[in-house]
Design brief:
Blueprint lengths: L6 E6 L2 E6 L10 H16 L5 E5 L4 E3 L4 H4 L4 H6 L5 H6 L5 E5 L2 E3 L1 H8 L2 E5 L3 E3 L13 H9 L1 H10 L3 E2 H6 L5 E3 L4 H13 L3 H16 L2 H14 L4 H11 L10
Parallel strand pairs: 2-3, 3-5, 4-6, 5-7, 6-8, 7-10
Antiparallel strand pairs: 1-2, 8-9
Bound molecules: octanoyl-coenzyme A.
Length: about 260
């Protein structure tokens, strides 16, 4: 595997685990970290031997935001010419299911990265926030859009305008995270969920992700039609034949991801 300086990359069976590893900066997301994370997960996306990915940080911080020190002295034309952080768009185009395992701070770009994943499993010590307003800016990696879709206008406005952090329980109540688990178990729980996903047919899981994401991009009628057409198309797959045969024969399916 490629040498990475800011992340740790492991493969556990059919599950990929990427750990942000800049503890000295609470995993602040500088350009190098973005490039390495996107490269690592893109490789997993293309690897037929990986069926799901977990992205995590450390116990204290999933990620405390974009790297403020790297950004602070940039001018408008630096930001624009470099199309600062455009690479995150590649992350959102990944087809493989990606789970965020969040312990500690997920702030600013850290919260936005967690929301770019397909779902979030949070440790009970997790703290989510979009405190950019305290820095004289606003969320720049999709936070004003994805947070609003996740928790609704009232709470998104509250968080983005005041910079208030919310804890794991409030995040679960608001629909930002799918599960809250004891902080020390968050990576293991996310890996277990990823193993379940990776045991399914990879192309079907990727299409299911695409269908759910379509709910955010289309109206209801088009979304339902999109889903039905994908459903129809799966009857051309070997995994549909295997899955339905296994049900009738009262055995576990053995998907070959085709
Ligand atoms: N960037 C750079 N360094 C950071 C960051 C960060 N976001 N967060 C923490 N660090 C560093 C600190 O500077 C410190 O380093 P040093 O020891 O060298 O001074 C080290 O990490 C430890 O941090 P603290 O000493 O501050 O630890 P505390 O436990 O006291 O506090 C907090 C933890 C509350 C998380 C605090 O560090 C904090 O408030 N961090 C900043 C949070 C923040 O404002 N995040 C938003 C950043 S802006 C952003 O994400 C915009 C994204 C969109 C960009 C899109 C561009 C197109």
């Amino acid at each position: 595997m490629t040498e990475y300086t800011n992340i740790l990359v492991e493969k556990r069976g059919r599950v990929g685990l990427v750990t942000l590893n800049r503890p000295e900066a609470l995993n602040a997301l500088d350009k190098a970290t973005m490039d390495q994370l996107v490269a690592a997960v893109t490789a997993m996306d293309a690897d037929p031997g990986v069926g799901a990915v977990v992205v995590t940080g450390s116990g204290k911080a999933f990620a405390a935001g974009a790297d403020i020190k790297e950004m602070a002295s940039q001018g408008y034309m630096d930001m624009y010419a470099a199309d600062w952080f455009r690479g995150w768009e590649d992350f959102t185009r990944l087809r493989i299911p990606v789970i965020a395992a969040v312990s500690g701070f997920a702030l600013g770009g850290g919260c936005e990265l967690a929301m770019m994943c397909d779902f979030i499993i949070a440790g009970d010590n997790a703290k989510f926030g979009q405190p950019e307003i305290n820095l004289g800016v606003l969320p720049g990696m999709g936070g004003s859009q994805r947070l609003t879709r996740a928790v609704g206008k009232a709470k998104a406005m509250d968080m983005i305008l005041t910079g208030r952090f919310i804890g794991a329980e409030e995040a679960e109540r608001s629909g930002l995270v799918s599960r809250v688990v004891p902080a020390e178990d968050v990576v293991e729980e996310a890996l277990k969920a990823a193993e379940v996903i990776a045991s399914k047919s990879k192309p079907v899981a990727m299409l299911a992700k695409e269908a759910v994401n379509a709910a955010f991009e289309t109206g209801l009628a088009q979304g339902v039609l999109f889903e039905r057409r994908i459903f129809h198309s799966l009857f051309a797959s070997e995994d549909q034949k295997e899955g339905m045969a296994a049900f009738s024969e009262k055995r576990q399916p053995e998907f070959n991801h085709r």
